[in-house]
Amino acid sequence: MRTLRIGVLGAARITRIALLRPARALPDVSVDAIAARDEQRASAFASKHGIAKVHGTYDDLLADPDLDAVYLPLPAALHGRWTIAALNAGKHVLVEKPFTANGDEAHAVADAAAGTGLVVTEAFHTLFHPVVDQLRGILQSGELGALQRATATFCVPIPPGRDIRWNEALGGGALMDVGWYPVRMLQALFGYDATVTSATATTRKGVDASMLATLAFPDLPSATVTASMWSRHVFGARVEIVGDGGTMRVRWPFHPQVGGRIRLRSAAGSRTVDVDRGSTYRFQLEAFRDAVLLGKPPASSLTDSVAMMTVIDEIYRKAGLRPRQPSTASD
Predict the structure, then answer these.
(1) CA 47, 51, 55, 57 torsion: positive or negative?
(2) Which of 169, 184, 204 lies closest to 78, judged by CA?
């Protein structure tokens, strides 16, 4: 049985739950190497998490012939640069969301991947969970009638400070972090041909602390996205979809393993639908493995990722802010 051998660029905290934990449950996936801007930091991370090999630089890791793929959890403003570098080194890539800094860079990554035969997967882990197909099935059943509006909310308190999510140069901001989830979930359900009709942001030193945006889709007249990492909306994670025949509310839609549940109210009555408690991250890693080792098509295409970044850019513009820009920093 062939094993997918992965190296990690950057000693980010998310690596533990997004890669290491699910990899331990999969006998045909191994995490074999890591590199970070600070080699001592990489060594400490490797020692703590049982990673055998430490490389002194990102380029050294990409040149490692014993690795098939890289996981890229660097700040968003570095995603495009190092994804392209990994492709040039002949490596498959699982790149954390957001896919790139902006739409132009997303196009550049898609162009670099075209014709290589290499897999590039954006790590929007929710998309790989069965809950997305459950929601699609309910919408396609017609139980809600003609769709009228949707709201999608993700608010998490992240106090201003040194966290990279408050650093504009590294791709920070509420929209690029937590706002990614509700926008991408709406696109997964209603298609990637979305129009941004309005957006309003509250900012702190140029970084969006919160974002309120309205979108329209071909089959959905209005969708509202609320995202914040520091506002009066302290915490919220939910999706609500309203039609002229009923309403669907989804609890914990972005991390359904935590306690996700679907509640429906329609002419057929009220009911609750339980969802799979399997980890979104495990489903994601299994899909990436299968795309690399078995050639199975991924749940999310690069075309989808480019469309997503284009919408993110337009939300920033509608809010009077400039889209995020790539960084040339190392980490």
Answers:
(1) negative
(2) 169
At the fourth CATH level, the homologous superfamily of domain 4-126+282-296 is NAD(P)-binding Rossmann-like Domain (3.40.50.720)
What 8-state DSSP symbol labels residue 198?
E
CATH of domain 130-277: 3.30.360.10
pLDDT digits (tens, 9 = 90+) for 271-283: 999 999 999 999 9
The domain limits of the chain are: 4-126+282-296, 130-277
Cβ proximity of 213 and 196 under 8 Å: yes
Spatial contact of 239 and 252, defined as CB atoms under 8 Å apart: no
Of the residues 97, 205, 296, 318, which is catalytic? 97
pLDDT for 140 beyond 90: yes
The 8-class DSSP code of residue 206 comes to T
Note the Cα 67 to chain centre separation in Å: 24
C-alpha 131 chain-centroid distance: 16
* 314 contacts: CB under 8 Å, gap ≥ 6: 196
Distance CA 110, CA 41 (A): 31
pTM score, two decimals? 0.96
- Catalytic, 48? Answer no
pLDDT of 1 reads: 63
pLDDT at 173 over 90: yes
- Distance between CA atoms of residues 235 and 232, nearest Å: 9
**Fold match flag (4-126+282-296 vs 130-277):** no
Nearest to 281 by CA among 157, 139, 121, 174: 121
